[in-house]
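As described in the Methods, two query proteins were run sequentially through the folding procedure within a single session, without resetting any intermediate state between them. The first query and its resulting structure tokens are shown here.
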Amino acid sequence: MAGFHETKAGPQSMMRIAINRTMGVPLATQIRDQIVAAIASGQLSRGDRLPTIRQLAEFLGINRNTVAQGYRQLEAEGYVSTRAGGGTTVAETAATADALRAGALRELVATALRTAEAAGFDAREFAELAYYQSAQQPLRPWILVVDEYDGELASLSDAVRAALPDSTVHGMTLADLASLTVSDRAARLRRFDFALVPFYCLEHVNSLLAGADLPTLAAGVGPSLKVLQRIRETSADKRVAIVCSEPEGPSYMERSLRRAEVIPAEVRHAHLGQDSLAAVLLDADLVIASEGSVDTVRGLVDAEKVITYSNILSEESLATIRSYAEFVSRQRAQQ
């Protein structure tokens, strides 16, 4: 019989650590296995910060040395890196991404096998059932979503996941894609069935994907009608600040508004990290902030004068994405 599992959400909200005190596996190894599993599943990405040793030990109610031992295992194996004053983060090196992924998958299997053996099953039984189960699973399309800005990338990726819950969706910023060498890029993109890219960065993405055997779908992305209506109703004769997380973002946002015939009388642009950001915000009567910048903006000015510029996928784009994902699934089933 499986033992009682103590499951607590740690400070890293996307990661859950499950401690089983009766399975005979050291707690440090269980912590290490859980973090490797989070990397393999995409819950943790390169550069993500792990909870501190003290935080995780307090959440799990275990000794700090046990957590430290698990972290040392992860660092020795190349899954994480630790810097003085910078904490522990998932390894950043793009060249190791595929090796980490393969290693993470091996560790997931090893962890599952240990659990099965603790429950009284042998390796042969485990392998037979794993093979049978994998043969029954539908082949999910793998979709790469690319956008220029982190906040918009997260929003677009979430929209695709909601529209296609049976697909595996990964997001990558344009800068991250451009930073990869040609060989690393080919290796990273090999597992995807197609890329989804907003119209405004399609040309740049296509130049980076030249030679890669990866179909690209252009997505119609823009503010919702509700957002446009609110901006139209509240921006007349007002000083408007348009804010994004990246320097180029406000220009794109203003162009989108003008295409929708929403034209504020006086507009200033600002981005996170800009020295004059606070002054621009305080001087504005209305602030239109991208999803990637809105939390920071609301911390600097009255939230009542802030409108979130929420990008959404057009219905036409959603229909195209669904159709292509179904086509990919049919093609895979026939192979």
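Immediately afterward, the second query was submitted; its sequence and tokens are:
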Amino acid sequence: MKIAFLYTLDANKVLFCPYIEQYLSDDNVMIAHHVNEQLLKQAMADGLTEAVVSLIQQEVQDIAATGADIIICTCSTIGNAAEQTDNIDSKVIRVDRPMAEKAITQTRVHVLAALDSTIDPTLSLLAQCAQQHGTSPDISYAVIPNAWPYYANGDTESYAKVIAEYVEQEVYGYDNIVLAQASMAPALGYINQPPAPVLSSPELCCKAIADYLPKD
């Protein structure tokens, strides 16, 4: 089996490695990494226009042509467009889908993002999952101010700490907290007193993908 990861941020390759090693390390599995940072840049600049969606889906088609059985789109902003790619044999899974399916089992869900562009795709996914599973959670959201510039400048530690501080000081009254972007996952290591269970996508996705691995 060949599993391909599509990243729109090169730094996220390192972020996923521990989870890939933990859940997807198997002699029968080949892991491939593909980076296209332009996809997120275009989505942030122009929105998910027809032209941007076409670029995203062309990238997915190119990865599928390499023989990937499963393609994991690690970017929440472009995840839906990636999943909707036609005329490929690969199974495409957006990284935040397993997290969303877990989140909507609770009543009060709070979504946090560092980028505005991630909010609408995440809310749409949560609504879709809730409808599929017959739940009706109360979903709210916030964009954490001043976090993303740290990441954009390569200061991932400060980025994670700003997110963690926001979670501990500004969030309360929810059953779970969704970190909408995969890049936010390291913040878990800095949250000492979480006000509710905090969900992040990289580990939950890799854990879910493990169910697709060939069984002995």
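The chain has a mean pLDDT of 94. We note this only descriptively and draw no conclusion about the first query from it.
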